[in-house]
Amino acid sequence: QVQLVESGGGLVQPGGSLRLSCAASGSIFSIYVMGWYRQAPGKQRELVAQITSGGTTTYAGSVKGRFTISRDNAKKMVYLQMNSLKPEDTAVYYCNQAHIYWGQGTQVTVSS
Predict the structure, then answer these.
(1) In the chain, where do the E strands start and end?
(2) What are the distances in angstroms from CA 8 to CA 4, 16, 46, 56, 101?
(3) pLDDT by residue (tens digit) across 72-82?
(4) What's the start-to-end Cα distance of the chain, in Å?
(5) Contact (CB, 8 A) for 40 and 90
(6) 51 CB-near residues (< 8 Å, 6+ apart)
(7) Quick one: which of 12, 19, 18, 8 has its CA closest to 106?
(8) How many CB atoms lie within 10 A of CB 73?
(9) Eight-class DSSP state of 101
(10) How do residues 51-72 score in pLDDT, each as one tens digit?
């Protein structure tokens, strides 16, 4: 049974930074692609960033150059460093494993 638990969300001013963390359990973590998705009110869930088992990263155009995804296979953790945050980054952020399993989400609000 795979469990994903996100943490690190919160309220931040425009231009600020946050670091999201996702702790995984119950599986062989290192072989799976891991991703961060987000869903804003009234919008569909969208891919923000993903990282393969080999460390190849992919970013949505709207966050490229501002967000960085990373993983620590030994700790079964994946991170999303978010810099230069904008109000349009406000959403619930979800951790995903292998395009199958989801965490419960963590709220990120960017507002002055």
Answers:
(1) 3-7, 10-12, 18-25, 34-39, 46-51, 57-59, 67-72, 77-82, 91-97, 101-102, 106-110
(2) 14, 14, 19, 23, 19
(3) 999 999 999 99
(4) 40
(5) yes
(6) 33, 34, 35, 57, 58, 69, 70, 71, 78
(7) 8
(8) 16
(9) E
(10) 999 999 999 999 999 999 999 9
